[in-house]
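Example (one chain per record):
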Amino acid sequence: DGGFPPLNLETIDFLALYRNELMRRQAAAAQAAPKANA
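Predicted structure:
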């Protein structure tokens, strides 16, 4: 141990975070370029 206290993190669902980021990017892209689809 390097003198650091143990770091207790909650279990992180990385797959959920990844999916949320993908959804956010898709929504942002759809809002940024609505004319490209028309």
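Caption: The radius of gyration is 19 Å.
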